[in-house]
Amino acid sequence: MEITIPSIITFVTLIMGMISKKFSIMNSKHIPFQNVLIGIVSGVLVFLTDLEPNILNAIITCLIASLGAGGLYDTIKAKSK
Question: At 24, is the secondary structure helix, strand, or coil?
């Protein structure tokens, strides 16, 4: 995997996070749905930029990354309590 795919996921996460905080769209219990949306949007961008020629692989890769990041954050947050 190239460094470009994680960069796209990070960029989409940053933009969607800023939008959801500015307009108070999501609360903390809806973050997994936001992560799924981030994964799908990132996957489509990865496919459109020809980093991954198969759209299904692109979306699955980005979904795993975005949901994994959310799960890792929740694990660290729960462990610190």
Answer: coil
- Give the model confidence (pLDDT) of 2-15 as tens digits: 678 888 888 888 88
Position 42: which residue type? S
Instruction: Tell me how far CA of residue 67 lies from CA of 16, 23, 39, 50, 53, in angstroms.
Output: 15, 23, 8, 23, 22
Output the CA–CA distances (angstroms, integers) from residue 25 to 36, 71, 75, in the order listed. 15, 21, 24
The residue with greater pLDDT, 40 or 2, is 40
> Is the pTM for the entire model greater than 0.85?
no
